[in-house]
Design brief:
single chain, MetI-like, 2 domains, 0% strand, flat, MetI-like fold, transmembrane helix, cell membrane, membrane, transmembrane
Length: 281
């Protein structure tokens, strides 16, 4: 009985510690949620709970700068992010299937180049990319974000899919080949249905990184009418000399909601995908 009580006591202590750490980590988000329902004068007061709840931050914040509302910024963000997610999953999984399942001339060399690209700092590629996209006439469009996703989708995602594919038994491929399937049909009907955790993980990672990207759109997009949410939020701070913080915080909450919904919707597959790509190979 003493041992059982000790176990319960240890478990209770662990839960208390975890809850305390969770509260500390989530406090900025909790503060932002409550602050979005305050008026602009009350935000920086000590009280966490608003003395008078108001939706003015959401109503006025959604109007944006007047010429463009946040509906435009949301539309632009989805127009940029959704093709990136789709093409990343398709191209990265296709390239990874080739690396994981086939032997071909120069495979080790190409794999080494891919890994080197994954380790290359992004700051080194900023100027060459900008010059290349400028010469192609792609500036002030979403092509600098979408087109690279069609050709491989990024070294990180290729490597992640490779790790998952290596954990799928080759006997399944051989059985499909015996039944008359081509290599493409094996990829489409055998490997990809089993790779749902890796697919969801890639989708969440790419959606999150693209949705939150600030520097890329700032570099390549010049027109306010094509701004995504990240630039729209930043522009809201430059409209007037006095910043309406309740509007900005309210729109920050709204902009984060798609990420939260996506994560909790695909949480099961995301955890499975991260665990599987980390231990298999």
């Amino acid at each position: 009985m003493t041992i059982q009580r000790r176990k319960l006591k240890n478990k209770a202590i662990n839960y208390i510690i975890l809850m305390a750490v969770a509260v500390i980590m989530l406090y900025p988000l909790i503060w932002m949620v409550f602050a979005s329902f305050k008026n602009n004068q009350e935000i920086f007061q000590a009280a966490l709970i608003p003395s008078k709840w108001t939706l003015s931050g959401y109503i006025n914040g959604w109007k944006g700068s007047g010429q463009y509302t946040y509906a435009t910024f949301f539309k632009n963000t989805f127009l940029m992010v959704l093709p990136m997610v789709l093409f990343t999953v398709i191209s990265a999984s296709f390239v990874a299937f080739g690396f994981a399942r086939f032997q071909f001339w120069g495979k080790k060399v190409f794999f080494a180049i891919m890994m080197a690209c994954m380790m290359l700092p992004n700051a080194v590629m900023i100027i060459p990319r900008y010059i290349m996209f400028k010469d192609m006439g792609w500036l002030n469009s979403y092509l600098p974000f979408i087109i690279p996703c069609i050709f491989g989708g990024g070294s990180f995602f290729i490597f992640m899919f490779m790790q998952f594919f290596r954990g799928i038994p080759r006997e399944l491929d051989e059985s499909a080949y015996v039944d008359g399937c081509s290599a493409f049909m094996v990829y489409l009907r055998i490997v990809m249905p089993l790779a749902k955790p890796a697919v969801f993980s890639a989708m969440i990672f790419q959606f999150m990184w693209s949705w939150n990207d600030f520097f890329g759109p700032l570099l390549y997009i010049n027109s306010v009418g094509k701004y995504p949410l990240a630039l729209g939020l930043r522009m809201s701070m430059d409209v007037n000399m006095s910043v309406s913080w309740n509007n900005i915080l309210a729109m920050a909450i709204v902009s984060v909601l798609p990420l939260i919904v996506l994560f909790f919707t695909a949480q099961k597959y995301f955890v499975e995908g991260v665990a599987a790509t980390g231990i298999k190979g």
